[in-house]
From TrEMBL:
MF terms in GO: cobalamin binding; methylaspartate mutase activity
NCBIfam families: MthylAspMut_E
E.C. numbers: 5.4.99.1
Top-level taxon in the UniProt lineage: Bacteria
Keyword Ribonucleoprotein recorded: no
GO biological process: anaerobic L-glutamate catabolic process
Gene source species: Pelomicrobium methylotrophicum
Alphabetically ordered keywords of this record: Cobalamin, Cobalt, Isomerase
InterPro entries membership: Cbl-dep_enz_cat (IPR016176), Glu_mut_E (IPR006396), Glu_mut_E_C_dom_sf (IPR014714)
Protein name according to UniProt: Methylaspartate mutase subunit E
């Protein structure tokens, strides 16, 4: 099911909008791949979305949050049966006070292995608990999944973690989900080994063209770029570079409401600077390309690396993540829980993580760092890092973001640390500096300016000297595992005896 269709392979890769007749044929082919595809009727889906109250339409909610300076909360969450998913979403809505309610799909659905997902449903029903790590929306289909939307009083978003979103998007939108997380570059380089960057881009061009089709019929949906979920450190400059390119690809298909996500570095100043730089750089390149009406709110993600096993340490990360998002001016924050190190959280733990985050946002909601010299320095440094990479990528594609992205990955101009995808060279290597900011230890083949790399090197060498360790790859490895280490190792209480 993962092979590209004959229809798609006949079209040369381009950022250009998929023509109407071609897209109509692509939709017919896509919806025929599993029986529940027959339940998708575009006209009915459009009317369903128009009947939703405004507070259950994510595009509207995100715009209003920006207007009012709010930072919204959204968890992750998915279980393997309809009953369990329904219970989860209601708990997140009512007990967690979530502003946005998610549905995370299972791994079989992410990889279009729907027959195996069906077996997982049956095993879950027999066991009386979820045997899948998410909700198999394709198997349950439109009619059943609409009941999930009816059961909550918040907007719902699909979190599918896939480079192959075409059928989940059709069913999710038709069921009443008004948001969809994912992008061709970020998810393909984060989640899958054997699918090329080109095919990932093509798959998400379908999704973005579908969202634009709803827009053409008067329904604005919220599309969102997902940041990176490699479980390692991603410096802001790499995350933002991908945000810019994914946004250009979405805008070319006609998307008007496109969120941007970044994982937190856990350095307050760097995270705040990243939010500001991301918003400004994405809008800068959209305007250059002629897209002046694309709304691009920024979301921060709770720490995306390894988590500690100690509940108290994890609780501190949850609360700090809310504080970071509020001070950074993020429009929303995607939350985690104290169960993160152990597996999928219970609905109650998920709701608790939401409330902890929400209280932190409340306490920090009026704080900003705009006048801080360190903040201004980091914003400008990020821009100096990102622009040469974007400019070189677009140049390699003769102005076409899709072609340029594929060629840039082939050349190592675009690169992702520790990516599982074999179309990424993964030669770039980040590490934390002496102050806790993520810097570039080894640029690989990425075209960072010499003077920028000198700043990174000086600050990383300062850390190596301070800790008495060699300046080299071990700095990067220790940075990946640092936050999950026991507190006694991170900050010993025996310091006075040393």
């Amino acid at each position: 099911m993962n092979a590209p269709s004959a229809l798609e392979t006949r079209r040369p890769l381009s950022q250009e909008r998929i023509p109407d007749d071609v897209f109509e044929a692509m939709r017919r082919e896509n919806l025929a791949r599993w029986p529940t595809g027959k339940e998708v009727v575009l006209e009915e889906a459009i009317e369903l979305h128009k009947r939703l109250p405004r507070h259950k339409r994510l595009a509207y909610v995100m715009r209003r949050a920006v207007d009012e300076g709010r930072c919204l909360t959204q968890p992750r969450g998915g279980f393997g049966t309809f009953r369990l998913q329904l219970e989860l979403m209601q708990i997140l809505d009512k007990e967690g006070l979530a502003d946005i309610v998610p549905t995370t799909t299972d791994s079989y659905t992410r990889n279009e292995q729907w027959a195996l997902a069906q077996k997982g449903i049956e095993e879950s029903e027999r066991a009386g608990r979820s045997m899948l790590n998410g909700y198999p929306i394709v198997n349950y289909g439109v009619a059943v999944s609409r009941q999930l939307i009816e059961a909550i009083d918040k907007p719902a978003i699909m979190l599918t973690g896939t480079a192959m979103p075409k059928l989940t998007a059709e069913i999710g939108f038709a069921a009443g989900y008004s948001g969809y997380l994912g992008s061709g570059i970020a998810y393909t380089s984060s989640y899958i080994k054997e699918l090329s960057i080109e095919e990932g881009i093509r798959n998400y061009q379908y999704l973005d063209r579908l969202a634009a089709l709803y827009q053409e019929h008067g329904v604005e949906l919220h599309r969102r770029q997902p940041g990176f979920l490699t479980g390692t450190n991603i410096p802001p400059c790499i995350a933002i570079t991908t945000c810019v390119l994914d946004a250009l690809l979405a805008a070319a298909q006609g998307v008007k409401n496109y969120g941007l996500e970044m994982g937190q570095t856990l350095h307050l100043v760097q995270d705040a600077a990243a939010v500001r730089a991301c918003q400004e750089l994405v809008q800068e390149y959209l305007r250059k390309a002629g897209y002046t009406d694309v709304f691009t709110p920024v979301t921060l993600l709770h720490w995306m690396g390894a988590w500690p096993h100690d509940d108290a340490q994890s609780a501190a990360l949850v609360v700090y993540g809310g504080t970071l998002a509020a001070i950074a001016g993020a429009v929303s924050v995607t939350t985690k829980t104290t169960h993160e190190a152990f597996g999928i959280p219970t609905p109650q733990a998920n709701a608790e993580g939401l409330r902890m985050t929400r209280m932190a946002i409340y306490l920090a909601r009026r704080i900003r760092l705009d006048a801080l010299p360190e903040f201004q320095f980091e914003v400008e440094l990020i821009k100096r890092e990102v622009r040469p990479i974007i400019d070189r990528t677009l140049e390699m594609g003769d102005g076409d973001a899709a072609v340029g992205t594929v060629r840039a990955f082939e050349a190592g101009v675009l690169d992702i640390p520790w990516s599982p995808n074999r179309w990424c060279k993964s030669r770039v290597m980040p590490a934390r500096d002496a102050d806790g900011c993520l810097r570039i230890l080894d640029p690989g083949l990425m075209p960072f300016p010499k003077e920028v790399l000198e700043i990174h090197e000086e600050r990383l060498k300062r850390r190596a000297k301070k800790e008495g360790v060699p300046f080299g790859p071990e700095l990067a490895v220790s940075s990946v595992y640092e936050i999950s280490e026991p507190l006694a190792k991170l900050m010993s209480d025996a310091w006075a005896r040393d």
